[in-house]
Amino acid sequence: MTSADCVVRSLRRLITCRGPIPKRKESLADLGVIDNAWVASHRGKIVYAGEEPGFLRQVKVEKEAVWVDGSGSIGLPGFVDSHTHLPFAGTREEEFLLRLKGATYEQLASRGMGIRTTVEATRKTDRDELVALCLGRLDEMLLQGTTTVEAKSGYGLDLETEIKQLEALEEAAARHPVDIVPTFMGAHEIPPEFRGRSGEYVDFLISEVIPEVKKRGLAEFFDVFCERGVFSVDETRRLVEAAKEMGFKIKIHSDEFTALGGTELAAAAGARSAEHLIAVTEEGIRALAGSATAAVLLPGVSFFLMLEKRAPARKLIAAGAAVALATDFNPGSSMLDSMPFVIQLGVYTLRMTVEEAISAATANGAYAAGREDVAGTIEPGKNMDIVLCDVHDYPSLIYHVARNPVRHVIKKGKIVVRDGVRVSF
Ligand code: NIG
Ligand code: FE
Questions:
Q1: What percent of the chain has pLDDT over 90?
Q2: Predicted confidence (pLDDT) per residue in 366-395, tens digit
Q3: Residues 6+ apart with CB under 8 A from 239
Q4: Ligand index nearest the alpha carbon of residue 334
Q5: Positive or negative: CA dihedral 49, 53, 55, 59
Q6: 152 lines ligand 1 (CB under 6 A)
């Protein structure tokens, strides 16, 4: 018998997403569904997920245990949002209105707006305010079922503000149940002080900022925006090699608008993920399919920027790439924080199947965020991160558009959202 201090009983259906991660090809559609399921955990880790008879035989429930009635609900792994730009200040409605009048995201960026507007606001905002902004956003995400989030700096572009953003993430993580995977993205844009001198900014990042972030232990991943007008493939390669040498895991924003070869570089460099891929080429797709690098698709960007072009999810899946879905939550290209909505966009706009989109937002999201050992599936040994949705069956999660289906959220064995309301303790 194994002890349990948290039990979810009698779920109508449990979507476990169990099995080897990352999921590729047909396995992406395998949700590992268990009907009439019981899930139990001890000290935040799952000890049992299966049918009632097995539970009764194998699990001894402690006296003070938390019980959650799952009857009438569908249970899923907590969503893993594997790409966000969480610690930013200010918003960009002005730019949004200019886009509605026909300006493109890239045109606005080349006029000094875009990311640089948010850099200005973030530099002026103090650390405590940034922490408060992050905590509020994490609450919103949690209410929609996100239990793990990757979060990038990159709105400082100087030593002080990049550190401030990463410290804000560290403090927010200590104060909030959502797990944060911190990424240093000082290579998000060329700051105004270095305009026209991107090579010198790359030197500065390599000689001063990356080592300082490492010394302070503030980030696990290094990310860079490889794009026309931002960082070239050669600059990206230099940055990635330096960051790898200093012990960072790698992510690359590649082929968002222009195919430069960043995706091929990500695969060759052993990056954990190549992200965006709206403009990915056949070679890029082949490179991902033959590598351990996940393809993180962000359908919120094509939606929010009203682009006709979308990431070729079907081709990527058919080729065997490890496809994940995430929000890219940021004030310029994807002001959306809802994983249920992103799953819907994966189906409606990228033509993923219902099952593929769910796996891509859980199991493969965990892989892309480097958390496959603890998150993304409901199996013994993983964190008890489980979302209960009051829908008849899982296809309703996609069928009923723009509704938050999340009723309860359990994070590491504690109820953090009950009946749609955040529970603090
Ligand atoms: O992922 N591509 C670069 N970074 C973000 C946009 C950030 C912004 O516009 O503030 C993205 O799309
Ligand atoms: Fe991004």
A1: 99
A2: 999 999 999 999 999 999 999 999 999 999
A3: 187, 202, 205, 206, 222, 224, 231
A4: 1
A5: negative
A6: no
* Cα distance between residue 383 and residue 120, in whole Å: 38
Residues with CB under 5 A from ligand 2 (ion): 328
Å from CA of 326 to ligand 2 middle: 10
Output the residue whose Cα is nearest ligand 1's atom 5. 333
Nearest CA to ligand 1 atom 12: 333
108 touches ligand 1 (CB under 6 Å): no
**Token couple for 338:** 């809802």
Residue 146 φ then ψ, to 5°: -80, 125
- Strand pairing class (59-69; 2-15): parallel
Does the pTM exceed 0.70? yes
Cβ–ligand 1 contact at 191 (below 6 Å): no
Whether 77 lines ligand 1, by a CB cut-off of 6 Å, is no
Q: Name the residue among 77, 85, 82, 76 with its Cα closest to residue 137.
A: 85
CA of 42 to the centre of ligand 2 (A): 36
Mean pLDDT, the chain, as a whole number?
97
Per-residue model confidence (pLDDT) at position 98: 97
253 in contact with ligand 1, CB cutoff 6 A:
yes
Evaluate if residue 238 carries a pLDDT over 90: yes
Q: Answer yes or no: is pLDDT of 256 > 80.
A: yes
Termini Cα distance of the chain: 30
In whole angstroms, how large is the CA radius of gyration of the chain? 21
CA distance 418 to 276: 34
Q: Is the pLDDT of residue 101 over 90?
A: yes
Query: Which tens digit of pLDDT belongs to each residue from 191-217?
Result: 999 999 999 999 999 999 999 999 999
> Each residue of 91-100: b (16+ CB within 10 Å) or e?
ebeebeebbe
